[in-house]
Design goal:
The protein has about 240 residues and is an all-alpha fold. It contains eight helices and no strands. The protein has one domain. Helix 1 runs antiparallel to helix 2. The model has no long low-confidence stretch (mean pLDDT about 85).
Length: about 240
C-alpha cells in the first residue's frame, strides 16, 4: 500500500532463520520482496497511468545505486547510520502531518526535464541506501514524488513500487553472485509476498490518495520506532 513491507518481513526472517548469517537473510528478503513488489506493480499498472520517462530516469540510477550499496553492505558499519535514518524519518512524518493537503491531488512541480534531473539524483541516493540498509526506502521515494515533484499519494505509491523493484533486483544481483540468498526459502515465501502485494495494491487503489496518506504516516511512524529500537539495541 505504501512501502514498509520490510518492517514486517525482515524481522520475521531474522527470527525464523536464526542459524543463518545476516547477509543471507538480507539477500533472501530482497528475493522475496521482488515478487510482491512485481505483483503490486502489475496491478497498479492496470489502474494508473505512469509517467514512463520519469520512471526510467529514476529507475536506472536507483538500480545502479542499489548495486553500489549492496557491494558495500558488508564493509560499512551500518549501525552508525541508523540514528540519521531515525531523524530523517521523523522529519518525513512531521512534514507530512504539517501539510494535510499534501498529495491529496496531483499538482506537478517543475518542468519535465527538471523533474527527471531531480528524480534521478534522489533515486540514485535512495537506491544506494536500499542496497546498503533498506528500512524506509518506500517512504523516502514516496516523499520525493509527493513533496518535491507534486504527485498525489496513490500515483506516488505506484511509481515507488516500480523504482523499489529495480533497487531490489540490483541488490539481488550482488547477493546472488555472492551466494548470500537462500533460494528455496525465498521462493517459497514469495507466494505469500505476492498475495500481500496484490491485496495491498487493491486496497490502495480503492482507498485513493487520502487512504494511502494515512497508511504512509502509520508505516513511517512504525519505522521510526523500529529503527530507533534497533539503534538502541545495537549500541
Amino acid at each position: 500500500m505504501a512501502g514498509g513491507g520490510g518492517l514486517i518481513q525482515l524481522p520475521a526472517l531474522l527470527i525464523g532463520l536464526p542459524k543463518f548469517e545476516t547477509v543471507e537473510v538480507l539477500g533472501t528478503n530482497k528475493l522475496t520482496s521482488v515478487f510482491g513488489t512485481s505483483a503490486a506493480t502489475l496491478l497498479y499498472r492496470r489502474a494508473i497511468t505512469f509517467n514512463w520517462k520519469l520512471l526510467i530516469a529514476m529507475a536506472l540510477p536507483a538500480f545502479i545505486g542499489s548495486i553500489g550499496g549492496a557491494l558495500l553492505a558488508s564493509s560499512i558499519p551500518t549501525k552508525a547510520l541508523r540514528p540519521i535514518i531515525v531523524i530523517l524519518l521523523i522529519a518525513v512524518v512531521v512534514y507530512t502531518v504539517m501539510r494535510p493537503q499534501l498529495g491529496a491531488v496531483e499538482s506537478l512541480k517543475h518542468s519535465p526535464k527538471k523533474q527527471m534531473r531531480i528524480g534521478s539524483i534522489a533515486a540514485g541516493g535512495i537506491g544506494f541506501y536500499d542496497g546498503l540498509i533498506g528500512p524506509g526506502t518506500g517512504s523516502f521515494l514516496i516523499l520525493i514524488l509527493v513533496a518535491v515533484l507534486g504527485f498525489a499519494f496513490l500515483q506516488a505509491s505506484a511509481m515507488a513500487k516500480v523504482i523499489n523493484l529495480c533497487t531490489n533486483v540490483g541488490a539481488i544481483l550482488v547477493f546472488g553472485l555472492d551466494g548470500s540468498i537462500l533460494w528455496k526459502v525465498g521462493l517459497l515465501l514469495a507466494v505469500a509476498n505476492v498475495a500481500g502485494g496484490l491485496i495491498g495494491a487493491t486496497l490502495a487503489i480503492r482507498g485513493g490518495s487520502t487512504f494511502v496518506r494515512k497508511v504512509f504516516l502509520f508505516i513511517t511512524t512504525a519505522l521510526i520506532f523500529k529503527v530507533g529500537l534497533d539503534t538502541i539495541t545495537m549500541w
